[in-house]
Write a structure and sequence with these properties.
The structure is a single chain. The N terminus is likely disordered. This protein has 6 helices and no strands. The chain has one domain: Alpha-lytic protease prodomain-like (Up-down Bundle). Helix 1 runs antiparallel to helix 4, helix 2 packs parallel to helix 6 and helix 5 runs antiparallel to helix 6. The protein is mainly alpha-helical. About 80% of the residues lie in helices and about 0% in strands.
Length: about 220
């Protein structure tokens, strides 16, 4: 549904300024809070689309967290920061693969036996997700000179497209009663999570190999 690029490279320059760190911290807090709300509303409304979108927000939180740790360490030892960022990314990929697998499994079961979904709850919650992604992108917009921040900005901006897809699914369910749309959207979001997780894994392994080669 959208292309997203996960860069885990440590910054070449010194530590980020306070405003950038504050922007990351606020963005992570926003995403964590909304992810929890979206997950519980998704469970209450029997929407796997919302649950899967919450899983995608987890991808955002882990990516932003890894970048933030990289910023913290960059001023001390750039090589160590790159290695730690790569190891964190490897851990993140394991978490995300399990998350995407669970969502995909539930979606396939729901696809075989579609159940009732609260289309209005799906629509309004996903619409709120667009606002959260937009606010996160706005906070990072003026810091795009750094490659990590630019990637995070594009990631958050493209998140709005995923949330928009869930909004449209909620409207379709409300108007037509086609509850099968919900697991279909969930499968699509799971596919996006898996695609980006593989890319993150590839970047992490490449960066880890690079740090070992330079150390040797």
């Amino acid at each position: 549904m959208s292309e997203q690029h996960h860069h885990i490279h440590a910054p070449a320059a010194g530590p980020a300024d306070r405003s950038l760190l504050r922007a990351y911290a606020i963005s992570i807090g926003l995403y964590l809070a909304f992810m929890a709300v979206e997950f519980f509303i998704g469970r209450a409304s029997h929407s796997l689309g919302l649950v899967s979108d919450a899983g995608h927000k987890l991808l955002d939180v882990l990516t932003l967290g890894a970048a933030l740790i990289g910023f913290r360490l960059a001023g001390r030892d750039a090589r160590r920061a790159q290695r730690i960022s790569a190891l964190i990314a490897l851990f993140n990929t394991a978490v995300l693969l399990v998350t995407a697998g669970m969502i995909l499994s539930g979606s396939l079961r729901r696809l075989a036996e579609p159940g009732p979904v609260d289309g209005a709850a799906v629509t309004w919650t996903a619409a709120a997700g667009i606002l959260v992604s937009g606010l996160g992108a706005f906070l990072l917009m003026r810091h795009q000179g750094d490659i990590n921040t630019r990637a995070a900005f594009l990631h958050m901006a493209s998140d709005s497209l995923l949330s928009l897809g869930v909004v449209l699914a909620g409207i379709l369910i409300s108007c037509t009663g086609w509850h099968i749309v919900d697991p279909l959207v969930s499968i699509a979001v799971s596919a996006v999570i898996l695609f980006n997780t593989v890319r993150l894994l590839t970047d992490a392994l490449r960066q880890l190999a690079g740090t070992q080669k330079r150390a040797g």
